[in-house]
Amino acid sequence: MTKKKTKRAIGLKYSEKQGSAPEVTAKGFGDLAEEIISVAQQHGVLIHEDQHLSEFLGTLDLGQEIPEQLYYVIAELIAFSYVLQGKTPENWHTPIPGVNAKV
Question: SUPFAM superfamilies in the record, alphabetically (predicted)?
Answer without folding.
Answer: EscU C-terminal domain-like
